């Protein structure tokens, strides 16, 4: 039976979600809310949604499923608003927030006793691009789509959401809201603090040591890439998960102090163990299997500085979907090759390695 889906927030996540739903459920009607006319216009023009509004409450009573793809504070405000609307009985309400406890607590406060179902969610996918204009039907492919059930999640709700999102080609997983926030504080939230702190420290240092700007590449570039993330979103994330994040900051201070003591004492064995343990722990992690935030698979090729060499490689990869191409110039002391090509899945990565290795004598490294 055809359903009516209401997506509130037609940014990159919401618009890409609409495309994924339409891929497997072309008969579903998709309604969209967005404050700005620009994203509404793009979503309508490109057929992502069937109807649009800038009045959130107007479409809510029509929906079988309501998905809030909005900043955390606005998501909570809309949950409060939904409590006073005449919604369809049994309507499913979900969200896409990067922290879950505050949102789940808000729903259990405002929607308790209402004939609605709620299931928190966090699609761990994204891009440096924003807005409906950047929507990508494959944005969620192979990425984790995390569900955090609550007391308002009735039996069958999760299965209905998985069916709705089958066209996203994501990997669905279920976890407690509080545990979600603990895990993401370590592997997502705290790294953003670290990247921005490192960037701030380097910018100040470079005022007296100008060459620091010129030599910054390789590992520094990879460690600080996420410092370019949208500040409003990250302010909201930190403030909605503050206790857990403060715990991670305190823990990290202790670890920095420990390695500082080892350096001060000249303890060669401790320093060696520090680096070796980190290397072994990283090699053992799921990082190399991907499927989380900003998933990509990187291939490095040592190519000579010759005319048309990059065009030749790209010609070999015709028909393969690329995420990014980067030429590593100047400082390459911790980079595996001059040409870095990123892919979205392991199959494309392996295919590219095979084609390049079979048709050239260049050194190819997968990381």
From TrEMBL:
<keyword id="KW-0560">Oxidoreductase</keyword>
<dbReference type="GO" id="GO:0008977">
    <property type="term" value="F:prephenate dehydrogenase (NAD+) activity"/>
</dbReference>
<dbReference type="InterPro" id="IPR046826">
    <property type="entry name" value="PDH_N"/>
</dbReference>
<dbReference type="InterPro" id="IPR003099">
    <property type="entry name" value="Prephen_DH"/>
</dbReference>
<protein>
    <recommendedName>
        <fullName>Prephenate dehydrogenase</fullName>
        <ecNumber>1.3.1.12</ecNumber>
    </recommendedName>
</protein>
<dbReference type="InterPro" id="IPR036291">
    <property type="entry name" value="NAD(P)-bd_dom_sf"/>
</dbReference>
<keyword id="KW-0827">Tyrosine biosynthesis</keyword>
<dbReference type="Pfam" id="PF02153">
    <property type="entry name" value="PDH_N"/>
</dbReference>
<comment type="similarity">
    <text>Belongs to the prephenate/arogenate dehydrogenase family.</text>
</comment>
<dbReference type="GO" id="GO:0004665">
    <property type="term" value="F:prephenate dehydrogenase (NADP+) activity"/>
</dbReference>
<keyword id="KW-0520">NAD</keyword>
<comment type="pathway">
    <text>Amino-acid biosynthesis; L-tyrosine biosynthesis; (4-hydroxyphenyl)pyruvate from prephenate (NAD(+) route): step 1/1.</text>
</comment>
<dbReference type="GO" id="GO:0070403">
    <property type="term" value="F:NAD+ binding"/>
</dbReference>
<dbReference type="GO" id="GO:0006571">
    <property type="term" value="P:tyrosine biosynthetic process"/>
</dbReference>
<keyword id="KW-0028">Amino-acid biosynthesis</keyword>
<keyword id="KW-0057">Aromatic amino acid biosynthesis</keyword>
<dbReference type="InterPro" id="IPR008927">
    <property type="entry name" value="6-PGluconate_DH-like_C_sf"/>
</dbReference>
<feature type="domain" description="Prephenate/arogenate dehydrogenase">
    <location>
        <begin position="3"/>
        <end position="293"/>
    </location>
</feature>
<dbReference type="InterPro" id="IPR046825">
    <property type="entry name" value="PDH_C"/>
</dbReference>
<dbReference type="InterPro" id="IPR050812">
    <property type="entry name" value="Preph/Arog_dehydrog"/>
</dbReference>
<dbReference type="Pfam" id="PF20463">
    <property type="entry name" value="PDH_C"/>
</dbReference>
């Amino acid at each position: 039976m055809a359903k009516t889906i209401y997506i509130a927030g037609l940014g990159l996540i919401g618009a890409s979600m609409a495309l994924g739903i339409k891929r497997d459920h072309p008969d579903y009607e998709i309604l969209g809310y967005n404050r700005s006319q620009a994203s509404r216009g793009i979503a309508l023009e490109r057929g992502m949604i069937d109807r649009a509004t800038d009045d959130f409450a107007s479409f809510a009573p029509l929906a079988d499923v309501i998905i809030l793809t909005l900043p955390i504070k606005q998501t909570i405000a809309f949950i409060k608003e939904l409590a006073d609307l005449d919604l369809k009985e049994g309507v499913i309400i979900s969200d896409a927030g990067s922290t879950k406890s505050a949102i789940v607590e808000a729903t259990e406060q405002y929607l308790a006793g209402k004939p609605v179902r709620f299931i928190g969610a966090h699609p761990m996918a994204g891009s440096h691009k924003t807005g409906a204009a950047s929507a990508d039907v494959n944005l969620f492919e192979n990425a984790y789509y995390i569900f955090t059930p609550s007391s308002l999640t009735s039996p069958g709700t999760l299965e209905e959401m998985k069916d709705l999102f089958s066209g996203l080609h994501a990997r669905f997983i279920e976890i407690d809201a509080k545990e979600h926030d603990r895990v993401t504080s370590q592997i997502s939230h705290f790294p953003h603090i670290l990247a921005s702190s490192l960037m701030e420290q380097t910018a100040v240092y470079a005022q007296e040591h100008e060459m620091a700007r010129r030599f910054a590449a390789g590992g520094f570039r990879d460690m600080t890439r996420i410092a370019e993330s949208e500040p409003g979103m990250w302010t909201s994330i930190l403030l909605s998960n503050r206790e857990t994040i403060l715990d991670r900051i305190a823990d990290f201070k202790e670890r920095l102090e420990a390695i500082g003591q080892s350096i001060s004492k000249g303890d060669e064995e401790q320093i060696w163990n520090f680096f070796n343990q980190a290397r072994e722990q990283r090699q053992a992690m799921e990082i190399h299997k991907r499927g989380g935030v900003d998933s990509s698979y990187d291939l490095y090729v040592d190519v000579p500085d010759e005319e048309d060499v990059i065009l030749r490689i790209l010609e070999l990869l015709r028909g393969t979907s690329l995420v990014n191409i980067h030429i590593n110039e100047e400082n390459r002391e911790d980079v595996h090759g001059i040409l870095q090509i990123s892919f979205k899945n392991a199959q494309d990565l392996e295919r590219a390695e095979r084609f390049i290795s079979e048709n050239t004598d260049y050194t190819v490294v997968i990381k």
